[in-house]
Amino acid sequence: MYLEIITPEEVLFKGQVSSVQLPGKDGLFQILKDHAPIISSLREGTVKIYVADDTKTLDHLSSQVILDTTDDKLCTVDVKGGVLECKNNMISVLAS
């Protein structure tokens, strides 16, 4: 799956992921490969990004994205809210 996280100021993350956990308005939810199409609003919280196993480099990684020191496949980024669209294994997050 391909994930993009974009704010009005900058691109936070672009790259292949195996899954992503997001803070939805009604609670946390996770998106895996071949997820049904979805559009959702996001609340303030942390997005957990699980980088795909075969990924050697990421297309873009902002300084706001924190790499987990115990798991080299996990990154996190805090968002204040936003919207998400997932369709055909392409996840777009417009965050604030």
Topology:
Elements: E1 2-6, E2 11-24, E3 27-32, E4 38-42, E5 45-51, E6 60-61, E7 66-67, E8 74-79, E9 82-87, E10 90-95
Parallel strand pairs: 1-10
Antiparallel strand pairs: 1-2, 2-3, 2-5, 2-6, 4-9, 5-8, 7-8, 9-10
Primary descriptors:
single chain; 96 residues; mainly beta; ATP Synthase, domain 1; 10-stranded mixed beta sheet
Main β-sheet description: 10 strands, mixed
**By helix and strand content, what is the structural category?**
mainly beta
Would you tell me the overall average pLDDT? Answer: 92
Overall number of strands:
10
Amount of helix: under 10%
CATH architecture: Sandwich
Q: CATH-wise, what's the superfamily?
A: F0F1 ATP synthase delta/epsilon subunit, N-terminal
CATH level 1 class label? Mainly Beta
Radius of gyration: 12 Å
Instruction: Note the run of SSEs as H and E.
Output: EEEEEEEEEE
Distance between the termini: 22 Å
Portion in strands: over 45%
Shape estimate: globular
Low-confidence stretches: none
CATH topology: ATP Synthase, domain 1
**Tally of domains:** 1
Q: What is the count of DSSP helices, taking H or I runs of 4+ residues?
A: 0
